[in-house]
Amino acid sequence: MIALTESFRKVHYGLRPAKQVERRMLIDALLLLTESGFPIRDYEYLGMGCVHFIDFAMFHKYLGICKMTSVEASEKLASRVEFNTPYRNAIHAITGKEIGDIIATIAEDKPYVVWLDYDSILCDYMLRDMSLAVSRLAPGSVLLITVDTERPKPTDDVTRDMTLEETRSYFEGVARPYLSPFHKDEDFDYENLPKVIIEALRGAIMSGLAGFRDKEFMPLFNFLYKDTHRMLTVGGMIGGSLEKRKIKRSRLPQTEYSRLDLSRDPCVISVPCLTRKEVLYLESHMPAKENWRPTEVELAEEDVAQFAKIYRFFPTYAELFL
Amino acid sequence: MAEQLSAKAFPHKSFFVDMFTRDLTLVECILDLIDNSIDGVIRTRDLKLDQNLLTPPNDRTVPDLPTVRLDVSDKAVVISDNCGGIPIKDAQEEVFNFGHSPEFSSKKRKDSLGVYGVGLKRALFKIGKAFEVTSRTVNDGFSIKVDLDEWMHQDSMQDWTFPLVRGEKAKSRQSAGTTIKITRLREDVRAAINDGTFRSRLFNEVGRVYALFLERYVCVQLGLETIKPMQFPLGSSDEVTPAYKELKYDGVNVFLFASLAKRDARSQWPADQAGWYVACNGRLVVAHDKTELTGWGVALPEFHGGKYRGFVGLALFTSDDPLKLPWTTRKSGLNRESMAFQQVRHQMVAVTKPILSFLNKMYPSDPPEEPKQRAIADNVRFVDVRSLHKGVQSDFDIRPKKPSPRKTTVRIVYDAERDDIEKVKKHLRRPDLSPRAVGEVTFAEYLRGNGLK
After folding, report:
1. What pLDDT does residue A168 have?
2. How far apart are CA B173 and CA B175, in angstroms?
3. Judgement on whether residues A41 and A158 belong to the same structural domain of the protein
């Protein structure tokens, strides 16, 4: 296994606006699924809360999930994880174990929300975890995976990105059984990497479904966002024809951010850099009417359009003197 | 209107005698013959494989086991048993057919090792050009004697029978059984038998394939030697709980066992015993598999000879309808497209994963000197899979008795010039010191000289 990039040491998790928008969109989606008959409040959440537990806190507060397990592989963080665990009667924090080991023992008859929230580049063990999760999760469960989609760096020279050939060799190494043998080098350039990763994830998902009758992975999310690194989150529901019908009847397919087909372009979360005053002004005109343009301040058209897409999920940061 | 004709789709005897037998090894043929004997035991003792195979070992009651005796020479292969015999009606109607009739499959073939109705004939044809089968049950008896050259000479659709003679019935249940004698052995079979390794291969293979039957329900002898069952190298200890799962898929019962293996006398895990073992109705069809068949390299990491040789797992499939089991016609592999196997493979991967994580920690890339995992592994002892079958399922778990004391030392490794080592030894007037001791002395001197200790 390659060393984790330990992104939590680099950026405070609470200050990653695009990631926060993604979390809020996921909560919105889970609320819509609740509305259409999936009792998400009674689900168990299995995730990787690290020492910040932001997703855990939000899922508990906004969705009411009360049975949650956070898995942290590093034994070195045991003390900090223990110290920082919030809502201790709801969250069970495990350190020194791989999340795959926990997935291997989860109950197959209870619905889960599982978020394999990795902060590094796609590795073979992630595909194995994904495949295992798909095979074990009960119908109605929601499965998400997040990976870094930057170009990998060679282990012997981390100051540079891999060349196109090296990148291809890397991804073919970690995901060979799942990638088409007909790829060209250009398919592994920076712009196309998310597609290659989705192809590998799809393969792992199909492998996890082998041998099951009436069990599918129904895609719901395909987010691409960047705070420091470009990240990809793919998610969906495990289920059969019943779950498919419920999703179809829900309001989730009408949302701007959902992706029920992974071959569609991803939902790109880009957080425009606006002042607090500009945000307040824009918010006063939301939801925006067609062709509305700000009149009191000159803002880039794409920033306004992007704000209109994500304003409900837009995080606000301020310094507090406590 | 188009003229309606027909195309012949007749079988030829030469296909069954010369072609059908090509992919089979001699050992596999002999195992096929033993399967028929064990089916006699199952039939006459009314064994229920899903219950009986995993009866805990302390329930053993094994006096006067039915015995299968193998006598193998380059003149004849003889297999004789007192396993109950073949009823004459079955011999007349079914046993010597190529494949079973649907009626036989649905009514009679229950809890058996015979599945496809090909093993016995294929073995007879593969081994020699002449055979005799004599069988006696407590109700009737018969014998069949065939010269294959003569039989093949009459290759018409009307002549697909063997001459059968009614014989005496057995005087007691203990004497009821079957004897098969194959003579005029084929040249390649004679050569294989004369290969010096043949007997030991057969001995080991029988011990492995019928590990769950031997010493419990049947005894197999090679000449005068009784074959011992292989012990599955599954281990447990006070600290190590093996994974044990019971599953059901479409009329197939599955019992999964996985754990660390017991280490050998040198505290090592022999690489050749590691991997997955798969048995169908108690007959082992895959041994120590480390390939993609059982998930390695795709759903699991590649089997790493050094790192994962401590893993061992057994998947036992049972069904009263043997056609639902994932074995191949040779019974030396798995039908990977079987729905039951495809689903069970996910479960096999799930029980394997935590064990590999334990082994990964045992062999970290930057090893501490004495990983606590090593001490746990050293204490693992053999556990009989049948003693784990108590209805209580478990996940693989490690519960160390007491936390090992935190290590306060770290190993320092560096290179030094030989001349400098010699200079230090001379200076200390200790020519006997090893380079390691020189390193320790100089380090201690630095600490003392600088007032650090």
Report:
1. 95
2. 5
3. yes
- Asked whether the predicted pLDDT for residue B61 surpasses 50, the reply is yes
Whether the per-residue pLDDT at B184 is higher than 80: the answer is yes
Q: Give the per-residue pLDDT at B434.
A: 85
Alpha-carbon distance B358 to B364, whole Å? 10
Instruction: Evaluate the CA torsion angle B182, B185, B188, B192 in order and state its sign.
Output: positive
With an 8 Å Cβ cutoff, are B350 and A136 in contact?
yes
The answer as to whether A320 is a domain residue is no
Show residues of chain A in contact with B299, CB under 8 Å. Answer: 128, 131-132, 207-208
Q: Which domain holds residue A91?
A: 7-269
Which of B298, B339, B360 faces A211 most closely, judged by CB atoms? Answer: B339
Which residue in B360, B237, B354 sits closest to B308, CA to CA?
B360
* Rounded-to-integer distance, Cα B205 and Cα B227, Å: 10
Q: Which helix (H) or strand (E) holds B129?
A: strand B128-136
Burial of B364 (0-12, 13-18, 19+ CB in 10 A): exposed
- The percent of residues above 70 in pLDDT, for chain B, comes to 94
CATH number of the domain bearing residue A152: 3.40.50.150
- Whose CA is closest to A222, among A79, A14, A22, A76? A22
The number of folded domains in chain A is 2
Q: What are the chain A neighbours of B304 within 8 Å (beta carbons)?
A: none
Size of interface A-B (CB pairs under 8 A): 53
- Say yes or no: A286 and A261 in one domain: no
Interchain contact B247–A (C-beta under 8 A): no
Average pLDDT, rounded, for chain A? 92
What distances in angstroms separate CA A90 from CA A50, A72, A111, B69, one per listed residue? 16, 17, 17, 64
When pLDDT is cut at 50, 70 and 90, the band that residue A4 belongs to is very low
The answer to whether the CB atoms of A101 and B353 lie below 8 A apart is yes
Evaluate whether residue A1 is within a structural domain: no
Residues of B in contact with A106 (CB under 8 A): none
- Whole-angstrom CA distances from B120 to B41, B114, B192, B366, B385 are 16, 9, 20, 55, 30
Based on the fold, state whether residues A295 and A151 are members of the same structural domain: no
pLDDT (tens digit, 9 = 90+) per residue, A43-80? Answer: 999 999 999 999 999 999 999 999 999 999 988 899 99
Residue with tokens 């704000």: A307
Residue A246 domain-assigned (yes or no): yes
Query: Interior CA angle at A224 toward A221 and A225, to 5°?
Result: 130
Side-chain-side CA neighbours of A201 within 13 Å: the count stands at: 29
